[in-house]
């Protein structure tokens, strides 16, 4: 009976949206869910996307079905940005399909992993909570390794140990850039080493690239992914356009598979197609079509890249200002300056997280993860003062 179902907790991260909305204080600050905000505190539709949407409305002459793979023009247009202009499909070894956001892509990637007979996924801790949640829902085991050390650097020893002790039937899930939730990314030298370690292991790499362009730049943020792909025979890549095209609620993503022998691609991708059919049949078209129109038009592409530059520059300014505050109450904000993307973690206790919400109207995840883009030059001093007070 339906009444045999157990009550499920609301997703803690998504619940923050409602908590913040319900707070009547005018000076409340939202540092919760990962959405970019401008210096004015808004999340406007990108100029380039608006222009593409106008074009789409004027030119689209049908909304007939496309198939489980979605808009293959969109999937292909992204590939030079993800895999590099020189060999965007690695000599016929990579193919992709459109998915509803990065979550849809991860769902398919992990579904394929499960179907292929893998038993366990090695995941850094902490990670984006939905990683473990999707693994659990699919009946995949999770083995965790420590992602970062207390000094704000990556814990390479933990990763080396996790790879060395991997078992037959294990896959590994890595964040390509802008680690969620810590903002602590691997350096180029570390990626070089990781690629070598993975090449000498039997692990299947799954790379989650949900923030390309929000860290150091579109090319720079693809460094780790590309290093791994030239070193290993097979990999899955879960991609999101939700942040780097600002399309959040339109749910725009893609799944790519790389295999050793191009002759195997059709078989491998047919599993992505059948899993999509069983989950959502076909992805929503609108956002992906808008991305394709941006990428097919040189002027719109240039404007989109300029918009990404503006976002990155603003987040760097916020990070620099937080870092300049240094030791604040009982915490040190200086490592935030060297971290990437939307997120950083401040080591608040659960009581301090609650106090920040109830006393100051400042909302962020229970893990202490803040979305730095929620800070502006208008509210950052208020935030730093609250941190000093609550952690003193
Ligand atoms: C986040 O981590 O805040 C974003 O990826 C949004 C989400 O779906 O959790």
Quick overview of this protein structure:
This is Aspartate/tyrosine/aromatic aminotransferase. This protein is α/β, with parallel strands linked by helices.
Query: Total number of helical segments?
Result: 14
How many separate structural domains? 2
Bound molecules: (2S)-2-hydroxybutanedioic acid
Order of H and E elements: HEHHEHEHEHEHEHHEEHHHEEEHEEH
CATH homologous superfamily descriptor of the largest domain: Type I PLP-dependent aspartate aminotransferase-like (Major domain)
CATH class of the largest domain: Alpha Beta
CATH topology of the largest domain: Aspartate Aminotransferase, domain 2
Shape descriptor reads globular
C-alpha termini separation: 52 Å
User: Which percent range fits the helix content?
Assistant: 40-55%
Quote the beta fraction: 5-15%
Task: Please give the CATH architecture of the largest domain.
Answer: 3-Layer(aba) Sandwich
The main sheet comes to: 7 strands, mixed
Average the pLDDT over all residues and give the rounded result. Answer: 97
Over all CA atoms, what is the radius of gyration?
21 Å
Strand order of the largest sheet: 2-8-7-6-5-3-4
Family: Belongs to the class-I pyridoxal-phosphate-dependent aminotransferase family.
Organism: Novosphingobium album (ex Hu et al. 2023)
InterPro entries: Aminotransferase_I/II_large (IPR004839), Asp_trans (IPR000796), PyrdxlP-dep_Trfase (IPR015424), PyrdxlP-dep_Trfase_major (IPR015421), PyrdxlP-dep_Trfase_small (IPR015422)
GO molecular function: transaminase activity
């Amino acid at each position: 009976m339906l009444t045999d179902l157990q009550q499920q907790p609301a997703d803690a991260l998504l619940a923050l949206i409602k908590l913040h909305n319900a707070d009547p204080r005018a000076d409340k600050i939202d540092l919760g869910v990962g959405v970019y905000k401008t210096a004015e505190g808004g999340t406007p539709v990108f100029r380039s996307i608006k222009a593409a949407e106008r074009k789409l409305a004027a030119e689209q002459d049908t909304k007939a079905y496309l198939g489980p793979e979605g808009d293959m023009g969109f999937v292909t247009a992204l590939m030079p940005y993800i895999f590099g202009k020189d060999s965007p499909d690695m000599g016929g070894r990579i193919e992709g399909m459109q998915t509803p956001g990065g979550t849809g892509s991860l769902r398919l990637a992990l579904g394929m992993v499960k179907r292929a007979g893998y038993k366990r996924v090695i995941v850094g801790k902490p990670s984006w909570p939905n990683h473990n949640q999707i693994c659990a829902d699919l009946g995949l085991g999770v083995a965790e390794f420590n992602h970062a050390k207390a000094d704000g650097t990556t814990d390479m020893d933990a990763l080396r140990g996790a790879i060395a002790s991997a078992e037959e039937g294990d896959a590994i899930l890595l964040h390509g850039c802008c680690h969620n939730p810590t903002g602590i990314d691997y350096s180029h030298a570390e990626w070089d080493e990781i690629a070598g370690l993975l090449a000498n292991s039997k692990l299947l790499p799954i790379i989650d690239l949900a923030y390309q362009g929000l860290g150091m730049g579109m090319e720079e943020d693809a460094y780790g992914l590309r290093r791994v792909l030239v070193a290993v025979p097979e990999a899955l890549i879960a991609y999101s356009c939700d942040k780097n095209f600002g399309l959040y609620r339109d749910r725009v993503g893609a799944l790519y598979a790389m295999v050793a022998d191009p002759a195997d691609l059709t078989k491998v991708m047919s599993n992505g197609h059948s899993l999509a059919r069983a989950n959502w049949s076909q992805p929503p078209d609108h956002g992906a079509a808008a991305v394709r129109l941006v990428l097919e038009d040189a002027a719109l592409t240039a404007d989109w890249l300029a918009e990404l530059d503006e976002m990155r520059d603003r987040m760097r300014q916020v990070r620099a200002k937080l870092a300049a505050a240094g030791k604040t109450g009982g915490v040190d904000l200086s490592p935030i300056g060297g971290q990437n993307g939307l997120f950083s973690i401040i080591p608040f206790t659960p009581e301090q997280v609650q106090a920040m919400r109830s006393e100051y109207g400042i909302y962020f995840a229970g893990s202490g993860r803040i979305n730095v883009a929620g800070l502006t030059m208008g509210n950052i001093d208020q935030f730093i003062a609250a941190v000093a007070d609550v952690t003193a």
